[in-house]
From TrEMBL:
The keyword Transferase does not apply. The keyword Cell inner membrane does not apply. Required for a late step of 50S ribosomal subunit assembly. Has GTPase activity. The lineage of its organism: Bacteria, Bacillati, Mycoplasmatota, Mollicutes, Mycoplasmataceae. Keywords: Cytoplasm, GTP-binding, Nucleotide-binding. Residues 122-190 form the G domain. Belongs to the TRAFAC class YlqF/YawG GTPase family. MTG1 subfamily. Signal peptide: none annotated. Coiled coil: none annotated. This is Ribosome biogenesis GTPase A.
Length: 277
């Protein structure tokens, strides 16, 4: 059973909820490899009537054909959808700024009718851990102001960031559910690195991840000289085979299972052209 909802997430969610009236809009960052599963429906409780820009990150890692089908799930006339490969900094910046300006212009028109100018907007950035929020904020700020890493739990507290006096962004920790009702969702998020490794039973997760990749990206096993498998018995046979191929074996001929599990977890995490929804 996978669950990860540390205290800093609960605290951050409460703070954002308390400050929701300060925000003019929200950027909701989703991982394109799990465009449905990476949306935290707890976000619906935060200022539901404020403008939202859905930012699908890591488009360089997803299956674009399937992704373009699934993102229509969010096709709401009140929201803006943008897709970005955050490794392409200049293009991502232009796409994000264009979306933010569109919302800001609408807000300015409404304020003008009321007879006052619009100050630089305040933007909340929401997303699950390791979705690309901090990278996105660094792109918007045009400098490294948020700590970045390819793992969950890098951002632990909230911080306001001034983006060249054009707007202010609140960077928040990645937020998960208090409890996963669907363990398939938990496995998907764990595969992409949104759940901290030390909160997971590594053996159990490796087996479940093997099943999931067998379903959604079966061809990758050929590169490892392994076979698609969904039964635990068959997965075990493939783990033994991988250990022998990679020489993850002790002097007494016993298998270094932990090394095999770590290898597979990292291998699955870094797959591209894959989508798990």
């Amino acid at each position: 059973m996978i669950n990860w909802f540390p205290g800093h997430m609960k605290k951050a969610f409460d703070i954002i909820k308390q400050k929701e009236s300060l925000f003019d809009m929200f950027l909701i960052v989703l991982d394109s490899r799990v465009p449905i599963s990476s949306y935290n429906y707890e976000f619906d409780k935060i200022a539901p009537h404020k403008p939202r820009i859905f930012v699908f990150s890591k488009t360089d890692l997803t299956n674009l054909n399937r992704f373009n089908e699934l993102k229509q799930h969010y096709n709401n006339e009140n929201d803006i959808l943008v897709s970005v490969n955050l490794k392409n900094v200049n293009k991502s910046y232009n796409v994000l700024i264009q979306a933010i300006k569109k919302v800001t212009n609408n807000i300015s028109k409404q304020n003008l009718k009321k007879g006052y100018k619009t100050p630089p907007p305040k933007i909340g950035v929401l997303g699950i851990p390791n979705s690309g929020k901090s990278t996105l904020i660094n792109i918007l700020a045009q400098q490294k102001v948020a700590k970045v890493g390819n793992e969950a739990g890098i951002t632990r507290r909230e911080q306001w960031i001034n983006c060249k006096d054009q707007f202010f962004v609140l960077d928040t920790p990645g937020l998960l559910w208090p409890k996963f009702d669907n363990q398939d969702t938990a496995i998907k998020l764990a595969i992409i690195g949104s759940i901290k490794k030390d909160s997971i039973d590594l053996k159990e997760f490796t087996y479940e991840a093997y099943k999931l990749v067998s379903k959604y990206k079966p061809q990758v096993f050929k590169d490892l000289n392994l076979e698609v498998a969904e039964s635990e018995e068959k997965i075990y046979e493939n783990i033994i085979l991988l250990a022998r191929n990679k020489k993850f074996i002790n002097n007494d001929k016993t298998i270094q299972f932990h090394r095999v599990y770590v290898f597979l977890v990292n291998y699955f995490k870094n797959l591209d052209n894959v989508i798990y929804d």
